Amino acid sequence: MKVEALLWVLGLVSLALAIVSRKYRRYGLAGIGLAVAVIVTVIVLPRKNEMAAPASAAIPAQRPKRVDFEQQHIQRLDQEDPQARNRIQVSEIRFDQINPSMDVEPGTFESIRARLYNDSARFALTDYGYYLAVQDCVEKRCTTIYDQRGLESATVPANQARDVKIAIRSGEAPGSPPFKLLGTPKIILLPTETRAYDPASR
């Protein structure tokens, strides 16, 4: 601030000198030019840079997209064997004996175990889609507090069953549980799609 005041004083004195005295007019004009140049260089340009900086900082940093190699693999198999999704109907597979894993801490669990039945008389199940919902039941009232969808691999021959494990995805913070039960858990696990790939395509 002191430098700015001195520069303005120098500019005004030089202007007055240029107006009043013809003898020193040349020096006065030179002083005015010098003062203006210093003001622009020292004061105006830094302020423009300070004003421009927040605009660039306001642009949110783009996070790199996570590449889902499993999904890409499924898409490639679907292209190679388009009938795989139609060989077994969703109504021909079912889940039973659905139970949560041992609690990591009270009120939460990290996975679901279930028995997956393939009631198709002809085809072996190779992949299944599911919808999982966890409800918290307090005083006979159940509320959904967590749900997820996914596609998993499981080889289940025709008219047989296999035990499967579905992991509960972490919460917002790495390793944190996504929900906290206050009452009794009720788990809903439903099939949503099927795959029965030809072994030659795999």
Quick overview:
The chain is α+β, with helices and mostly antiparallel strands. The protein is 32% helix and 33% strand.
Helix content: 25-40%
Question: Which structural category do the helix and sheet elements fall into?
Answer: alpha+beta
CATH class of the largest domain: Mainly Beta
What is CATH's topology name of the largest domain?
A: Immunoglobulin-like
Number of DSSP strands?
6
Q: What are the low-pLDDT stretches, counting only 5+ consecutive residues below 50?
A: 53-57
How is the main sheet built? 3 strands, antiparallel
Shape: elongated
Give the count of helical stretches: 3
Spatial strand arrangement across the major sheet: 1-2-5
Instruction: State the order of secondary-structure elements, H for helix, E for strand.
Output: HHHEEEEEE
Mean pLDDT: 80
Radius of gyration: 36 Å
- Kindly, what is the distance between the CA atoms of the first and last residues, rounded to a whole number of angstroms? 75 Å
> How much of the polypeptide forms β-strand, as a percent range?
25-35%
Describe the structure.
The protein has 202 residues and is of the alpha+beta class. It has 3 helices and 6 strands. Strand 3 and strand 4 form a beta hairpin. The model is unreliable at 53-57 (pLDDT under 50).
Show the helix and strand layout.
Elements: H1 2-20, H2 25-57, H3 69-80, E1 93-100, E2 111-118, E3 125-138, E4 141-156, E5 160-167, E6 184-195
Antiparallel strand pairs: 1-2, 2-5, 3-4, 3-6
